[in-house]
Design a protein that fits this description.
With 218 residues, this protein is α/β, with parallel strands linked by helices. 39% of the residues lie in helices and 20% in strands.
């Protein structure tokens, strides 16, 4: 059976804009301009032949049709994510790229990231320092650990012990980020070591600094 589907980019733009009720915040999350989000949503509406949003002054509101469509699109995205996760055979890992602000002291990360590796053994960790909001907005890292609070539309900034975890709203509730957050806050206990070897932590230096010696190993 052949499926007649709208463009995926248009669906992503619609879902993000509907979640934020803002083209601007959706644009921050998707690393595009607000005009690009607006254009993708408009193209989707023309393709479907329905109005998904009411455009008001500095605000967009979902129509009843848009609310119904949003529920179904979210279910479809979840099915895609689950199907993709199930495809990975045992032993194949995914990568979580963590940016660390240049001024952040990383000594306390050793134990907490060890907890993460035990809780999510299928996920490898890659660290880049220095890295900040600029790298996050460009999609070069998945989350950023910063020493000071930094607010950005479309992103969640949550307090840690001695710092803050910043990530896009669109991925802030995914299993890997939730586990990382709990580990960084010390809510996950470190279990006795086992014979199973966890994926490694990979250190990389950012473009603004020459490569340095690894600042920790787990």
């Amino acid at each position: 059976m052949t499926y007649l589907l709208p463009p995926l980019n248009a669906l992503r733009a619609f879902e993000a804009a509907a979640r934020h009720l803002s083209f601007k915040q959706a644009a921050h999350e998707l690393h595009v301009t607000a005009g690009a989000v607006s254009q993708q949503v408009r193209l989707l509406e023309e393709r479907l032949g329905v109005q998904l949003f009411e455009r008001r002054t500095r605000q967009v509101v979902l129509t009843s049709v848009g609310e119904t469509y949003l529920t179904q699109i979210r279910q479809a995205f979840r099915c895609l994510a689950d199907a993709t996760a199930e495809l990975k055979p045992d032993g194949v890992t995914s990568m979580l790229h963590i940016g660390v602000h240049g001024s952040f002291v990383v000594d306390g990360l050793r134990t907490r990231l060890a907890r993460f590796r035990q809780a999510q053994p299928q996920v490898a960790i890659r660290l880049s320092q220095p890295a900040g909001l600029h790298e996050l907005l460009e999609g070069k890292v998945d989350v950023v650990i910063a020493e000071r609070v930094q607010r950005c539309p479309g992103h969640r900034c949550e307090p840690l012990e001695g710092g803050f975890l910043i990530g896009p709203l669109g991925t802030a509730d995914c299993r890997e980020i939730e586990t990382l957050r709990s580990c960084l806050l010390g809510h996950v206990e470190l279990e006795p070591p086992t014979t199973t070897k966890a994926p490694p932590v990979v250190n990389t230096a950012g473009p603004a600094r020459r490569p340095s010696k690894p600042f920790f190993s787990v």
